[in-house]
């Protein structure tokens, strides 16, 4: 067991919230599973998840599962940009859903990663963050529960760098900028995300002009937060919608059947070795062709 003394500033905190904040667990759902299974003790006794902790109490957690001695996965049907026994970085093709959603019965990335990924939500094991179905590029996936918890902790602390390449209509007012605007369900159309919302959550996006094209701009976009459709909503809000975006932009153009958005760079500290890890992904052929068409326009 791992014994953790409750610090003075955590006195009065709910047990599930305290456990979720531990790097060894990393999520509220993971904390609830451990507590409900009777695997978490407070001063040697099982307590409900709503139990209020006293400062100085000792919370005992089970030792995390050892990481698997896993060989690089082969034949899973999706390309991998990086792989080791603890995590993989998938180079997700456009059109592939990350996990099942209501109304979709086709294959998902989660299906392809069965037996390879683990940790976190049982409905989407190993998934650390997500990409829209029609966004291509790099997606980080854990291969065991401890690694998933550590990566989730890095993500919450905004220590995982995620950079995208986006082709947009128009030109931003400055070569570099930062968009700070909460995002939530649109007040009038709940199927869309929007700045016009009753339940906005903080969202921050940075952009940099890479190439000025006739009527369009190639941008390098970095996420600080990861709200649903964040880049698409933020860029549309400043008058530069993503090319090809059927929801927040103008739909198909330049021969594209999806939005010109690619997750091109991923930077993090490896949760096991502590070494910096950087993974890169080139533009896929459909986006390369659209970019050339924009240059020739």
What does this structure look like?
The protein is of the alpha+beta class. Helices cover 17% and strands 27% of the residues. The strands form three sheets. Strands 5, 6, 7, 8, 9, 12, 13, 14 and 15 form a nine-stranded mixed sheet that branches.
Write a concise keyword list for the protein shown above.
297 residues, alpha+beta, 4-stranded antiparallel sheet, 27% strand, elongated
| Spatial shape | elongated
| SS-derived structural category | alpha+beta
Helix content: 10-25%
Q: Ranges with pLDDT <50 over ≥5 residues?
A: none
Tell me the distance between the termini. Answer: 64 Å
| Helix-strand sequence | EHHEEEEEHEHEEEEEEHEEH
Number of helices: 6
Round the mean pLDDT to the nearest integer and report it: 90
Compose a concise summary of this entry.
The protein has 297 residues and is of the alpha+beta class. Helices cover 17% and strands 27% of the residues.
Topology of helices and strands:
Blueprint: E1 2-5, H1 15-20, H2 28-36, E2 41-42, E3 45-46, E4 58-61, E5 80-83, E6 87-92, H3 109-112, E7 136-142, H4 145-156, E8 161-169, E9 176-180, E10 184-185, E11 193-194, E12 204-213, E13 216-223, H5 230-237, E14 261-269, E15 276-280, H6 285-296
């Amino acid at each position: 067991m791992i014994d953790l003394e409750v610090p003075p500033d955590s006195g009065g905190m709910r047990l599930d919230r305290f456990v979720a904040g531990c790097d060894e667990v990393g999520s509220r759902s993971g904390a609830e599973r451990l507590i409900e299974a009777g695997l978490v003790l407070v001063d040697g006794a099982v307590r409900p998840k709503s139990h209020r902790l006293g400062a100085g109490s000792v919370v005992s957690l089970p030792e995390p599962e050892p990481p698997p001695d896993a060989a690089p996965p082969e034949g899973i049907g999706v390309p991998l940009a990086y792989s080791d026994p603890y995590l993989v970085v998938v180079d997700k093709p456009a059109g592939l859903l990350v996990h099942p959603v209501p109304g979709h019965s086709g294959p998902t990335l989660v299906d392809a990663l069965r037996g390879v990924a683990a940790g976190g939500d049982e409905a989407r094991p190993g998934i650390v963050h997500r990409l829209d179905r029609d966004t291509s590029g790099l997606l980080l996936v854990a291969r065991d529960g401890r690694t998933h918890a550590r990566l989730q902790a890095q993500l919450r602390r905004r220590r995982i760098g995620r950079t995208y390449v986006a082709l947009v209509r128009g030109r931003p007012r400055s070569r570099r900028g930062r968009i700070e605007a909460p995002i939530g369900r649109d007040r009038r159309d709940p199927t869309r995300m929007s700045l016009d919302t009753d339940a906005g959550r903080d969202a921050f996006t940075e952009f940099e002009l890479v190439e000025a094209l006739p009527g369009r701009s190639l941008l390098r976009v970095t996420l600080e937060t990861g709200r649903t459709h964040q880049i698409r909503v933020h860029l549309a809000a400043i008058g530069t919608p993503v090319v090809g975006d059927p929801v927040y932009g103008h739909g198909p153009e330049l021969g594209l059947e999806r939005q010109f958005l690619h997750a091109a760079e991923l930077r993090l500290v490896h949760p096991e070795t502590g070494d910096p890890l950087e993974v890169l992904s080139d533009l896929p052929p459909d986006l390369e062709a659209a970019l050339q068409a924009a240059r020739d326009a």
